[in-house]
Amino acid sequence: MLYSHTDVVPAEHDKWVHHPFEGHLDSVGRIYARGSQDMKCVGMQYLEAVRRLKGWGFQPKRNVYLVFAPDEEIGGHDGAEKFSLSEVFQGLNVGIVLDEGLASPDEHYRAFYGERSPWWLVIKAVGAPGHGSKLYDNSAMENLLKSIESIRRYRASQFDLIKAGLKADGDVVSINLAFLKAGTPSPTGFVMNLQPSEAEAGFDIRVPPTADAESLERRIAEEWAPSWRNMSFRLGQFKQKVSGHDASGKPLVTKTDSSNPWWALLENAVQEAGGKLGKPEIFPASTDARYFRNLGLPAIGFSPMANTPILLHDHNEYLHKDEYLKGIKIYESIIKAYASFVEHGSDGRTKDEL
């Protein structure tokens, strides 16, 4: 199954050198457009690769499904999640899912065998209000600032592993402050001589499948938002209860060794098309591929964009036309290899779908 999403994130038009929704091709071959990397390029490359294969008379041994979903950027709950649980999807008998990856600044294409799960954490502190001139312990703001400092130290310990080259982005727990909310509003701003009785902070946390999720949740409850300090927390709608295993008890990652024929086929296909594949990685954010991995299906994140700066969700997102066209050839090779492979399930039934 060749999967892609059609939605994109918003863009600040005045921050772009060319309008983000006009698909501008500049004089040196850069295609400026929101979605040029994430991920309209991939969906179009699928279509063109299939068109070329059909034009050459290629006869696949298994069905090839192209799936376009509408809402990955807001969680995929009405798209991929519902589709993955539908009778329609179950009837497809899918053997492998290809979804999005990331651009690579060097000559090696990147492939992702798992991803970090998003935990959207909101911490709330309460305390007695007081005059702005008074010093006292355990105010709402003081308690929240203690938590923020504790979180900052944890974040630094994870970031240091990346800076030292010991781990990749997708292998650590990332945490970033998303919002702060406190103060008593006034017609001109905020009341400056009143200490607020409540304060909140929101954090975007990304947890790799290799992390100890239960330990992290204990850290939140006992260290970052302890009830004895008049604090509470909640995890938002996108929080995944990461156990590291799918519904059948298998690790929530796709194997990237000789035990997985789909991985070997991908490696060979990329090489035969003149590409180079880097070391397999954990995707640092989240994609719709997680819904299919939850079912126990192998899913690989792959976007053929080498020698390209990572600009998804950024101003001036672009993809060079030469890389885009080369990516079509890469997909021709991958689709041909995958569609020519016949797999037999544990019950002996041929899995003749892709």
From TrEMBL:
Cofactor(s) of this protein: Zn(2+)
Principal location: cytoplasm
Cellular location(s): Cytoplasm
Cofactor comment: Binds 2 Zn(2+) ions per subunit.
Keywords from the named record: Cytoplasm, Hydrolase, Metal-binding, Zinc
Top EC category: hydrolase
Active site: D7, E72 (proton acceptor)
InterPro entries from the UniProt entry: Aminoacylase-1_M20A, ArgE/DapE_CS, Bact_exopeptidase_dim_dom, N-acyl_aa_amidohydrolase, Peptidase_M20, Peptidase_M20_dimer
EC number: 3.5.1.14
Binding site for Zn(2+) 1: H5, D38, E100
Pfam families associated with the record: M20_dimer, Peptidase_M20
Positions bound to Zn(2+) 2: D38, E73, H313
GO molecular function: aminoacylase activity; metal ion binding
Recorded family membership: Belongs to the peptidase M20A family.
Designated name of the protein: N-acyl-aliphatic-L-amino acid amidohydrolase
Organism: Trifolium subterraneum (Subterranean clover)
